[in-house]
């Protein structure tokens, strides 16, 4: 993460930033005044996300709701959510017409919703762009999201270290949809990491759709095509449920699997340590809670405690920590269903 070495750092850091605890010392000249940490004027935050038809997306909504409830001075106006871009644009326009103080938007399609982000900004409503980025930086005041390249990079480095002493090691990849830029970034990060391990070769790749069914079907194809391999990098823990089903049905083992995102089911399997799944690389949905923190600070004209200046950052990138049996107890509470 931008502000720490663990994914939990962003949530903890930004929670502290807008905590209701009074400051215990006078601030230095270049620090935000102590009053910034006290309850402030009421703020209405409009929250527009995509349809929660995936474990990670549902966790995004739950993190936003839970964080808003911790603030007596925040009202969260949340839309139903839609994967239809026209419907989501309409929902955002409704929030604009309601004259909410700040907007938090996780667009189903960043490019398609850029214009409505610009509309909000021009109407004087600052926008926190969550995860899927708009096409223009003029469409948002702050972007906060995960590190897709770093996710692939850390997965590749983890696998590389596990296999660095194995001659002619083979790895395979079960990606997300190739139409998504995030998938391309995760694959590039993974491939770049493997360049540091000349003994390792990626021998196969299949693109799934972030669903259990697609994970099972595409993993079955990989298993049929590859009689043996040493490691599997799976981009998404939801589709990983299907991948593990295919692996069990085929009776395959003898390799290590690294997942992605940080679902509770994956973390439980890692803790049990009785199967091929040995690690997952976080893409933490706590970013939504941090987006609420930032939106509240914007609505109350506050900066972020711990940073000089009177403004929130323009960008916050969460770190993609690797969770395995050595640190599972630290991250297990963050696992999402």
Automatic annotation (TrEMBL):
Location (main, coarse): other
Keywords, comma-separated and alphabetical: Signal
GO cellular component terms listed in the entry, alphabetical order: cell envelope
Intracellular or extracellular location(s): Cell envelope
Annotated region described as Disordered, given as residue ranges: 23-42
GO MF annotations, alphabetized: carbohydrate binding
Annotated ranges, domain Periplasmic binding protein: 45-300
Pfam families assigned to the protein according to its UniProt record, in alphabetical order: Peripla_BP_4
Protein family (similarity comment): Belongs to the bacterial solute-binding protein 2 family.
The protein's name: Sugar ABC transporter substrate-binding protein
Organism: Streptomyces scopuliridis RB72
């Amino acid at each position: 993460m931008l502000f720490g070495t663990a994914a939990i750092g962003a949530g903890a850091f930004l929670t502290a930033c807008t905590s209701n605890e009074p400051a215990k010392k006078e601030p230095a000249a270049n620090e935000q005044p102590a009053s910034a940490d006290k309850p402030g004027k009421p703020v209405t935050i409009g929250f527009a996300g995509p349809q929660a038809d995936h474990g990670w997306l549902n966790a995004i909504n739950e993190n936003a709701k839970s964080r808003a409830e911790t603030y007596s001075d925040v009202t969260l106006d949340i839309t139903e959510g839609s994967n239809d871009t026209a419907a989501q644009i309409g929902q955002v326009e409704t929030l604009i017409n309601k004259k909410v103080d700040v907007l938090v938007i996780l667009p189903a399609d960043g490019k398609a919703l850029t214009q409505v982000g610009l509309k909000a900004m021009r109407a004087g409503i600052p926008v926190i762009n969550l995860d899927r980025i708009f096409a223009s930086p003029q469409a948002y005041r702050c972007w906060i999201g995960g590190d897709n390249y770093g996710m692939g990079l850390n997965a590749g480095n983890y696998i590389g270290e596990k296999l660095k002493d194995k001659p002619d090691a083979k790895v395979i990849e079960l990606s997300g949809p190739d139409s998504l830029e995030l998938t391309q970034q995760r694959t590039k990060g993974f491939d770049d990491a493997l360049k540091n391990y000349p003994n390792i070769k990626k021998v196969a790749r299949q693109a799934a759709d972030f669903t259990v069914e697609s994970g099972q079907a595409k993993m079955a194809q990989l298993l049929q095509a590859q009689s043996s391999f040493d490691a599997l990098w799976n981009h998404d823990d939801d589709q990983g449920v299907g991948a593990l089903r295919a692996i069990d049905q085929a009776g395959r083992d003898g390799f290590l699997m690294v997942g992605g995102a940080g679902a509770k089911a994956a973390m439980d399997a890692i803790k049990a340590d009785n199967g091929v799944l040995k690690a997952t690389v976080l893409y933490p949905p706590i970013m939504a809670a941090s987006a609420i923190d930032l939106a509240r600070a914007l609505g109350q004209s506050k900066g972020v405690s711990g940073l000089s200046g009177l403004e929130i950052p323009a960008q916050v990138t969460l770190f993609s920590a690797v969770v395995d049996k050595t640190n599972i107890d630290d991250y297990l509470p963050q696992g999402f269903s």
